[in-house]
Amino acid sequence: MGYSAKTAQAQIVSRLNLKVDKEESAESIGSKIYQRLKQEESFLLILDDVWKAINLDHIGVPKPEDPARSKVIITSRSLDVCKQMKTDIEMKVYTLDEDESWQLFVKNAGDVANIEQIQPFANEIARECDGLPLAITVIGTSMRGKPRVELWEDALKSLRMSEPHNKDVKDKVYKVIKWSFDSLESPDIELSSEQRSKHVNKRRGDIRSCFLYCSLYPATMSTDDLIHCWWAEGFLGEHDTYEEAYNRGITMIESLKDVSLLETHVFDFVKMHDVIRDVAIWLANSFGDEHNSVTQAGIGLTEIFLIKVSASVKRISFISNKIQCLPDNFTECPETTTLLLQDNDRLSKIPDEFFLSFPALRVVNLSKTEGMDKLTNLRLLNLPVGDLNESISQGFFLKLPSIEMLKMDSEMMPHQYNLKMNYNVLIELWPGKEGVTVVEPTSFDEISSLHNLTSLFIRLDSSSICNRDHTWMKRLKRFHIIVGNTTAQVRQNKSRRKISVSRCEIFSNGELSGMLQFASHLYLEKCMGLRKVIVNKNSFNGLKSICIHKCSCYFTPVEEGSGQFDPLPNLEYLSLEYVHNLKSVSDFSQFLGLRLTKLRQLVVYICHSLTCLFNVGDAFALPKHLEEITSIYCNQLVELLRNVGALGEPQSMLEHLEELTLQGPNQIRKLPLSIQTSNNIKLIKGTTEWWSQLEWDDDNFKSNLDHRFTAFKENLSGNTKEGTYWFNDPESPPCQIS
């Protein structure tokens, strides 16, 4: 299926009317093709549905730049094919929207689709195809000329049950996607010779099992949830640390994206196309017992005792239903390793006897749970929502000897629970629905005693970090520690080391310094005492990103050592939000004694007193490596640079600037750019009115920048809401804690 090099060469020979002998070698034919195409002023070659990389040199196609006007276009389901063929530009082709899907469906199904009794079923069938042209065309054509309602109703049921009763659907749609599945190979990761010898006998993971596991979820799923479950099931292979396993999980996800079996969704979520999910469910139940699954996710179930489950079922999913209670007696499932019950908001109690039917479980994701002490093989327990203090007794966790990954609300972890179990990867303690629960000091001490812990995501009371030794944090590979209560939305990102502090006055004695030395990102919201923790002879070499949100300060310069000691020598990203007393970023840098020598991204957001970004004449020099500047609704901003003449000609400044965004009203009428410094500019964003009012020393200079200017499309009336703007650093948007 799809093009091979031999097929492509044969079709090119046919289209060019070349004479070749049947016994002629591929090299000889390639030479004839090359000589023939070289005679053309230009040519366009389209290779459709390429499934394996084709060496164009071997089949005789000249490089597209020779002649310059020639082009080669390939279409493929696999991004890896494009990479192997060294394409210059990759363009993702998106699925059709609902209107386009319906038009294509009617075109193939004919007028029968518009018959009054049939149209509701035809509409639903078109929606089940989820914008996939191949599925719409094949299924629409298969229903053409069928006026009986029963046939349409049966076709819809078949699609919803992921059962390809229609032969055309199976042969032309399912088999195409199955080919992509069959082509999956677990990706290799380059290792040093020492690493290769260390890992020579270890399994590297099973990407096909990872793909089939995705079918247990509705259309969208959290990448972290997937990776954690894959790890617990053993699909990621054998690894010495959680970090290695997590990295392999990310590699698996990216590989599935590259062959279009998964799609990028919002934040840290991925999406599986409905038709691909149907194929995955079909495949999972076509492999016999190895991947036998029951998937009843998001279909409105209120009870499960009538669901037919075989004794050999490996995985069960009842995600996102309306289940209120589980039965006392359930079919014996001695081989089931995964049970997913999350997002059943009405589920109030699970009978003690329920888990007796699942002795082999490795993964459980649910809420409001009891009777789990029989799960001796459990590796991952996810209790995402609910107050379980009344239903879980002291010592409950000690009855789970195999547990390695625990994810739960912080309100679930009062200090009386003994945490010294078999954790070697992750503890995740996030607040419940009210968003105000915290871990008590005693519990934090117990967490610090978990010597195998590598990742920690937790919310603390400020008293939890006072008078404590934080050197144990150096063994953490990733963490996000929230101190205090924040109104911001919590968005988890498991790939970095972040501290977020909100509404606290904990800096007076430098309590935060011990934790900051291990952090790479810092978020401060309505906090006091920043200067004392930063300037007090502390050097935070690892801190690369700071977001200051609504922190009131009087920006007086640091008195001594301002030019000799930089407390944040590696700071690359700075975001100042609602800092109302701030008149310039230079004031902020002098206030903390920062030199900003490595600053690359600067964001100022609703700072109403801000009149300029940098005062060039001040003791602190302009950041030499600044690449992106974003100003949002800083109404009094008059200049980017003040006192430019103090350091010479403007061509020595902002020479690395690539993007400039000025959104909302401002007073800037001239940009401190020259022909020399504008060479790196890729994008300038602002209003059309602002751009037209700018003053220029040279009209030709403006003309050179016109094609790099992009106007905002939204209405900038001056009204805005917090948290509606996203900057180039997705980890530090305003009013968001990532």
Summarize the structure.
It contains 20 helices and 27 strands. The model is unreliable at 189-201, 367-371, 384-395, 409-426, 429-439, 646-651 and 714-738 (pLDDT under 50). Residues 221-280 form the Disease resistance protein winged helix domain.
Tell me what you see in this structure.
This protein is an alpha/beta fold and 738 residues long. It folds into six domains: 5-84, no CATH class; 98-182, Helicase, Ruva Protein, domain 3, CATH 1.10.8; 204-274, Orthogonal Bundle (Arc Repressor Mutant, subunit A); 292-384, Leucine-rich repeat, LRR (right-handed beta-alpha superhelix) (Alpha-Beta Horseshoe); 390-521; 544-738, Leucine-rich repeat, LRR (right-handed beta-alpha superhelix). Helix content is 26%, strand content 15%. The protein has an 18-stranded parallel sheet, sandwiched between helices. The protein has a three-stranded antiparallel sheet with strand order 3-5-4. Strands 1-2 form a two-stranded parallel ribbon. Helix 5 packs parallel to helix 7 (133-142) and helix 12 (223-233) crosses helix 13 (242-258). The protein is globular. The chain starts with a helix and ends with a strand.
Helices and strands in order, then pairings?
Blueprint: H1 5-16, H2 26-38, E1 44-47, H3 56-59, E2 71-74, H4 79-84, H5 98-109, H6 119-128, H7 133-142, H8 149-160, H9 167-182, H10 193-199, H11 207-214, E3 220-222, H12 223-233, H13 242-258, E4 263-264, E5 269-271, H14 274-284, E6 293-295, E7 315-317, E8 338-340, E9 363-365, E10 380-383, E11 405-409, E12 426-430, H15 441-448, E13 455-460, E14 478-483, E15 489-490, E16 497-502, H16 513-516, E17 521-525, H17 530-535, E18 545-549, E19 573-577, H18 585-592, E20 601-605, E21 612-615, E22 628-632, E23 639-642, E24 659-663, E25 683-686, H19 688-693, H20 699-706, E26 709-711, E27 736-737
Parallel strand pairs: 1-2, 6-7, 7-8, 8-9, 9-10, 10-11, 11-12, 12-13, 13-14, 14-16, 15-27, 16-17, 17-18, 18-19, 19-20, 20-22, 21-23, 22-24, 24-25, 25-26
Antiparallel strand pairs: 3-5, 4-5
Helix pairs in contact: 1-2, 5-6, 5-7, 6-8, 7-9, 11-14, 12-13
